[in-house]
Amino acid sequence: MTDLDNIRDNLDYVSSAVRSGTSRDGIPALYFLWGLLIFIGFALPDLAPRFAAIYWLPASIGGGLVSWWLGERAERRQGINNTAFGRRYGLHWLVSGAAFLLVFISLISGQGEAGPELFLLVAGLSYSLAGVHLERPLLYSGLLMLACYGGMVLISPPYAWTLTGLVVGISLLWAGFAQRTKHNRGDPQ
């Protein structure tokens, strides 16, 4: 390793140590992106059910790639190179994606009595745990998803998916606007 690499590693370590006491609240653009994707995707089972799976395949993969790119860009702009956090973040969403894939496989195989609301249960758990371990505002959106899952299973109101998409989409937009205001004021993350 060259001296320049050692200096860079040392500065990254110091920067990460200084910032480790601060909570990460996320990038506003990511909340806006996922608020829109979730609202559209959750409304589809009620309004155009045959397009729901067709929508979610490119939306989830494309949204994940755009999220990764936006996160990398924001970290570079702030001069942060925290690869450990990036790996943890990526692993969380990779495991969540695998859980979504398993739910999809169980639905198309016809085994068991699980329904599409299991996607909402997995999403609620994924967002809630991301809120606990990664970005606090995701906790509230995740808890709303879990509450909507309970309502969907117990009550089955009409247009349950659309209402859930609206509630979760608004919560993510709210978090995005709150983070943008926080960033504009110059508050520490």
Quaternary state of this entry equals single chain
Gross morphology is globular
Cα-based radius of gyration, to the nearest Å: 19 Å
Structural class: mainly alpha
Beta-strand percentage?
under 5%
Main sheet: strands, sense, barrel = none
Distance between the termini: 33 Å
Helices and strands, in N-to-C order?
HHHHHHH
Spans of at least 5 consecutive residues with low confidence = none
Proportion in helices? over 70%
Mean pLDDT: 84
**Helical run tally:** 7
Strand segment tally: 0
Lay out the secondary structure.
Elements (H helix, E strand, L loop, with lengths): L2 H17 L8 H20 L4 H26 L5 H27 L7 H17 L3 H18 L5 H26 L4
